[in-house]
Design brief:
With 433 residues, this protein is an alpha/beta fold. It is built from twelve helices and 21 strands. Helix 7 crosses helix 8 and helix 8 packs parallel to helix 10.
């Protein structure tokens, strides 16, 4: 087994906890220069000396996305703005965008963290790495770009969209690795086959890094089969730098979250109390190795759990289970709590179905109803009896999973909108009053 930083990646748990506490205390001291945290710390009596163990982290109040918006643009900064070298932000479509500031040291640490992730799944400086994520204010593009360069790959900053150009680059440049959104990975494969190309035979692809949107294990396996690759799940968020916060190893059994850079907590999103290891809850993250804009106990809204046991790969950093969804993406329908990922898990089990689907929720009369439209694959048939049996079986499995019965509509391939970026999976058209 090879490691990018063996001493860090395989550090025993006791030493890792000591490192976390040391870095946490230093981060608290530095964050006292932040207009936001200086006020929070004063109101709650928080100092570096008041934190004597990792359990003391719970003395610090949660930080939320609203805190970032309310302190737009520089109220969270812990160093002078003249010492910051980059800013990333969200779209800000619902008010002020959330911004994250970086120093040169922060960017170097982030690049190293992404390189560590890529090296973990077998990517080397001999690889040609193509990045299909957007650049600019979105962190996915530049995060992987700098990580791949740190690793020494020949990089192809293709950016998002223009599928036929992506394919040309893959074939002409001998691309071996991709960073790609799951829904776009299946779209890319479909276009290749439509062009008469078999990616398993006509390209040199062997590894793809997927993330940025929830996806099921079935979706991952479909990507692997279509492209002839190994696909590894990546988790990142701009508030924690971007991609590379957690990443699967070659075991593909949970995402190692790099605890030398963040402290992870899992809480009940309702009671806000810690849950037991193995129980699903909301992930809370604290940065302990970032100087420009540290964040304490940030509510990610992502639902996951810490997997018990050790990983055969030898890395000691905790593993997170596949994300179930987001607490704020949860759909409540007829008193039932459910997540889109549950629906995708069922749909992807049927080879007769394509990868594109749309969930529409609307009020019909006085009742809220769910319609699931899903495209058929190339195995499309106009035999009504076959389609009827297929619809019945899919509906049965969806009912067993969701504990309610949705309306299912099978549509021809290409009928639903296709996005080059994150797929829009849910349209909630319910009346709110």
């Amino acid at each position: 087994m090879e490691y990018w930083q063996k001493d860090i990646e395989t550090m025993n748990r006791e030493d890792l906890a000591k490192l976390q506490l040391e870095r946490l205390k230093k981060t608290i001291e530095a964050a006292g220069n932040s207009p936001f945290y200086s006020k929070i710390f004063k109101e709650n009596g928080i100092t570096a000396d008041s934190i004597q163990s990792l359990d003391d982290l719970q003395k610090i109040p949660f930080t939320t996305k609203d805190d970032l918006r309310n302190n737009y643009p520089y109220g969270m900064a812990a160093i002078p703005i003249k010492d910051c070298v980059r800013i990333h932000s969200s779209s800000g479509t619902t008010g002020n965008p959330t911004v994250v500031l970086h120093s040169a040291k922060d960017l170097d640490q982030w690049a190293n963290q992404v390189a560590r992730c890529m090296y973990m799944v077998g990517i080397r400086n001999t690889d040609v790495f193509q990045n299909t994520s957007g650049y600019g204010m979105f962190t996915g593009g530049l995060g992987f770009q700098y990580g791949a360069e740190k690793l020494g790959c020949l990089t192809v900053p293709a950016a998002a969209g223009n599928t036929k150009r992506q394919i040309k680059f893959i074939t002409d440049f001998g691309t071996t690795c991709l960073h790609i959104i799951p829904s776009y990975a299946t779209r890319l494969a479909e276009v290749m086959y439509e062009m008469g190309l078999d990616p398993r035979r006509d390209t040199q692809l062997h590894t793809v890094c997927i993330g940025a949107e929830p996806h099921s294990e079935e979706q991952r396996r479909r990507i692997e089969q279509l492209l002839g690759v190994k696909a590894y799940n990546c988790f990142g968020m701009s508030e924690m730098n971007g991609p590379g916060v957690a990443f699967e190893c070659t075991e593909q059994n949970g995402l190692h979250i790099w605890e030398d850079n963040v402290i992870v907590e899992i809480i009940d999103p309702v009671t806000l109390q810690p849950v037991k290891e193995g129980e699903v809850g909301e992930m809370i993250l604290t940065t302990i190795n970032r100087e420009a804009m540290p964040l304490f106990r940030y509510r990610t809204r992502d639902l996951t759990c810490v997997l018990p046991g050790e990983c055969p790969c030898g890395r000691t950093h905790k593993r997170l289970a596949r994300f179930k969804g987001r607490s704020d993406d949860m759909i409540i329908l007829k008193g039932v709590n459910l997540f889109p990922i549950q629906i995708e898990k069922i749909l992807m089990q049927f080879k007769e179905l394509g990868s594109n689907y749309l969930i529409t929720i609307e009020t019909v009369g006085n009742n809220d109803e769910m319609l699931i439209e899903v495209e058929l694959s190339d195995l499309f048939t106009d035999d009504y009896s076959v389609l009827q049996r297929l619809t019945k079986e899919i509906t049965r499995q969806l009912k067993d999973e969701l504990l309610l019965t949705p309306h299912l509509k099978l549509v021809a391939k290409g009928s639903l909108p296709v996005q080059d970026g994150k797929a829009v999976r849910v349209k909630d058209l319910r009346k709110l009053c």
